[in-house]
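Explain this one:

_____
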Amino acid sequence: LIFARGKALSGKWETALHSLKGLPNVVDIRNLGLMGAVELAPRTGAPAARAFDIYLKCLEKGLLVRQTGDIMALSPPLIVTDEQIDEIATKLGEAIRETD
C-alpha cells in the first residue's frame, strides 16, 4: 500500500522537480520514482561550493536535502503529501535563486 502511494506521487514529484529547470546554474534534473537530483554548474575553481551554499540556505528554510558534489539529492519519504512536494520544490527553488 505504501509503495503504491509512492508510485502514485511520482508524477507530481517529477513535475515539481522539473519546474526548477531554467533556474540560474541548474544544469540538469533527473528523477526516478520519488528520488531526484538537481545538478548545478560548479563554480570555477571551487567544485561543490555552490551546492554547499544551497544546502545551507535550504537548512535555513527548514528543508533538509543532501548535497553530493554539485548535485542536490532528494528523496522524500513515501508518506510525503502533495503539499509537502510543492513546499520542497518552492524552498529549493528559492535557495537556488538566492545563491550565485
The chain has a mean pLDDT of 96.
